[in-house]
Design goal:
single chain; 289 residues; alpha+beta; Immunoglobulin-like; 2 domains; 5-stranded antiparallel beta sheet; 4-stranded antiparallel beta sheet; 3 helices; 42% helix; 22% strand; RIPOR3; FAM65_N; RIPR3 protein
Length: 289
């Protein structure tokens, strides 16, 4: 069976800071320049992280259930083959079983790592909320030397929790895997005519995919690219822009956004996106996680 490669990301070294970051495995610092100490920190999005975490955990459990069922099936055949003494087939099955067992162990570790990261994230989120509430309370009290010192300490606590949450978000993104997008063509009925040329531009954060296609005389479509791999992002949605090419001129057909939260599943997802407001032109994609 084919195993998803996202379960085999290398584990990078932890940072040495004596906080939550010293216990989290992150990508190399070079890949997270914006997360390094002293750099500008963006605002964490706990609700979005929760939504992605729940979808990710559900998808990983689907993989676990599917391969556990495969292991049960192979184990049953293994016992029957042993009784029938077909040694060559028996050893081949034994290799398959060991391979699936190794994969299941990796998958179980992957799930536990994701849960650990999210639990640490929730703790930092609660600490930040508590420090923020206390900071607001002290700000309303009479200004004294003690209150100013307390405010300064609470400000540092809020900043530290925010920084830790951003680091954990970066660590969680390492475990999101890959989205394989396949171009399936435009659907437009009377809007698509032979000879028409279109450009499709797909963006996910800094990742981009630009491809051009043409409507042939037999109504088939040819595209210069058919597949692209995107790395999921906690905060960004897919942005899709379709443009019609007419000589040197370009006519914007439509721009839409698409949330990726439903893509964390074992089965390929057939996506039909309305490019125009009335749905007269649609884009067909297939997404495999």
């Amino acid at each position: 069976c084919a195993f998803p490669e996202f379960l085999f990301f290398p584990r990078s070294k932890s940072l040495s800071r004596s906080s939550v970051r010293s216990r989290m495995s992150l990508k190399p610092p070079k890949a997270y320049n914006s997360l390094q100490k002293g750099a500008l920190i963006w605002d964490p999005k706990p609700l979005q992280v929760k939504k992605i975490f729940e979808a990710l955990k559900k998808g990983l459990n689907e993989y676990l259930e599917a391969h556990q069922a495969e292991l049960d099936y192979l184990s049953g055949r293994h016992k029957d083959t042993k009784r029938n003494s077909r040694l060559a087939f028996y050893y081949d099955l034994d290799k398959q079983i060991r391979s699936v067992e190794r994969y299941i162990r990796k998958l179980e570790f992957h799930i536990s790592k994701v849960e650990e990261l999210y639990e640490a994230y929730c703790i930092q989120c609660r600490l930040r909320d508590g420090a923020t509430n206390m900071k607001q309370a002290f700000a309303l009290s009479p200004a004294t030397k003690a209150s100013r010192e307390s405010l300064l300490e609470l400000y540092r606590n809020v900043q530290e929790c925010t920084e830790d949450m951003c680091f954990i978000e970066g660590a969680l993104e390492v475990h999101l895997g890959e989205f394989h997008l396949k171009m399936k063509g435009l659907v437009g009925f009377a809007r698509l005519c032979p000879g028409d040329q279109y450009e499709v531009f797909v963006r996910l954060g800094r990742q981009k995919w630009r491809l051009k296609g043409k409507i042939e005389t037999d109504d088939s479509q040819t595209w210069d690219e058919e597949e692209k791999i995107f790395i999921p992002n906690l905060h960004e949605k897919f942005e899709i822009k379709v443009t019609e090419l007419r000589g040197l001129a370009t006519i914007l057909v439509g721009v839409v956004t698409c949330d990726s939260v439903n893509f964390f599943t074992t089965k390929p997802q057939a996506i039909l996106v309305d490019i125009t407001e009335l749905g007269t032109i649609k884009l067909r994609l297939e997404v495999l996680w």
